[in-house]
Amino acid sequence: MKHRWIPLLLLTLVIPARPAQAQAPPAGAQAANLVFIPATDPAFNYIGRWGELNTSRGPAMATVNSSSQASIRFSGDRVYGDFDVRHVAFLAQLEVRVDGGRRRLITIDRRRLLLCQGLSAGEHLLDLVVKDVDERGNRWFPPFASAVVFEGLEVGPAGRVAAPAMLPAPTLAFFGDSITQGVRVVGMQIGVAGSNALESYAWLCGEALHTRHYQVAFGRQGVLRTGNGEVPPATLSFGWNFAGSVANEPAPDFLVINQGTNDGRYPPREYLQAMLGYLREIRAYYPHAKIFVLRPFGGFHAAAAEQAVKLTHDVNVHYVDTTGWLKKGDFRDGVHPNRRGSQIASRRLAAVLAPYIRAWTPQP
Predict the structure, then answer these.
(1) What is the pLDDT of residues 42-68, one digit of tens each?
(2) For domain 171-358, which architecture applies?
(3) Long-range Cβ contact pairs of 164-167 (< 8 A, separation 24 or more)
(4) Distance of CA 196 to CAs 182, 204, 215, 350, Å?
(5) How confident is the model at residue 364 (pLDDT cuts 50, 70, 90)?
(6) Domain locations in the chain?
(7) Interval 18-32 mean pLDDT
(8) Residue 20 has what pLDDT?
């Protein structure tokens, strides 16, 4: 089961906690009576695309996508996060939340980071969400110049861990480019200063619909065009967490596609064929998902995208006409929605998806 970033979903915690796995802790951890919990511990709950990656300490969990999430229950008065930053030149940022409280922004600029301290006795819930993975550095071929490589947590004193408990909820995935990633939603700066997945239309829409949601999105990427950070086009990257790591997250119930803004250089017919192939690939990968193809907010290849949807002859693939959703003042630079534009788009999209979300029932 996947954890949701909304405190209302948490049930009474009935899963008994257990001692954290005994692993070789970092230097200084034993002296502070901390217990190291490797990122591969089954108590962690991951949402989004994470892949296992070996580091100098052993297996870690890596993601190259903004909005990817991890959560765990633990006992202890403090938590440190351990990250492999040996090759990272473009720093990523996390938002940390304990027990559904206020989020705290963390820049992953060193191997060992204090995530929280001064906690009361008893169990706590730790949520981590990736605010931004910088689109400029290599984030496709390990070793990464831009990624979150999570080695684990140090919990103390004498920490114990357990998996979070959740109510059933539908999963909503977004696949797209920098607009879906949240690039420039905050400001004109490229990188973490101007980008925030948690203020993108995609994240806000998922929050409004009370889904478990995540974004798989890469700046400059199109159905045909290669993305920043050495990411292949969407048709070639879809089934992968990153190079060499097959995507194996649970299939989403609903999937939104926002691609085409970066494909303007290609003839409509070429884009049409590529989009149709992309949709067929997604359907083969996720045979039961309801798929929604957005008209790109700027209108790029709108007619071809709509035609591709029709040519699937699939009643569970829908075209969403976004004409008129956003006006000139809703964009940061004419392409990327600003905060207001993202909020408007999220409300409009949530209204489209809401009837389908309400009709969702958990699979047995």
Answers:
(1) 999 999 999 999 998 899 999 999 999
(2) 3-Layer(aba) Sandwich (3.40)
(3) 164/3, 164/10, 164/13, 164/45, 164/71, 164/72, 164/73, 164/125, 165/10, 165/11, 165/12, 165/13, 165/14, 165/15, 166/1, 166/2, 166/3, 166/4, 166/9, 166/10, 166/11, 167/9, 167/10, 167/11
(4) 5, 11, 12, 19
(5) low
(6) 7-162, 171-358
(7) 46
(8) 45
Query: What are the counts of helices (DSSP H) followed by strands (DSSP E) for the chain?
Result: 6, 20
What is the CATH number assigned to the segment(s) 7-162? 2.60.120.260
The DSSP secondary structure of 269-292, one letter per residue, reads HHHHHHHHHHHHHHHHHSTT-EEE
Residue with tokens 């006006």: 327
How do residues 133-148 score in pLDDT, each as one tens digit? 999 999 999 999 999 9
- Cα separation, 289 vs 246, whole angstroms: 19
Name the 3-class secondary structure at 28. coil
Task: Please report, as a single letter, which amino acid is at residue 313.
Answer: H
* 337 DSSP β-pair partners: 331
**Residue 207: exposed, middle, or buried by beta-carbon count in 10 A (0-12, 13-18, 19+)?**
middle
**What's the CA gap between 74 and 155, in Å, rounded?**
8
Asked if 204 and 343 touch (Cβ cutoff 8 Å), the reply is yes
5: pLDDT strictly greater than 70: no
Using an 8 Å Cβ cutoff, are 73 and 161 in contact?
yes
| Phi and psi at residue 164, to the nearest 5° | -65, 150
pLDDT band at 7 (very low <50, low <70, confident <90, very high): very low
pLDDT at 204 exceeding the cut of 90: yes
Instruction: Answer yes or no: are the C-beta atoms of 187 and 193 closer than 8 Å.
Output: yes
Structure letter (DSSP) for residue 163: -
Q: What is the pLDDT of residues 230-277, one digit of tens each?
A: 999 999 999 999 999 999 999 999 999 999 999 999 999 999 999 999
Beta pairing class for 171-176 and 212-217: parallel
**Percent of the residues in the chain that have a pLDDT greater than 90, as a whole number:** 86
Q: 131 CB contacts (<8 Å, ≥6 apart)?
A: 66, 92, 93, 94, 95, 105, 192, 196, 197, 198
pTM of the entire predicted model: 0.91
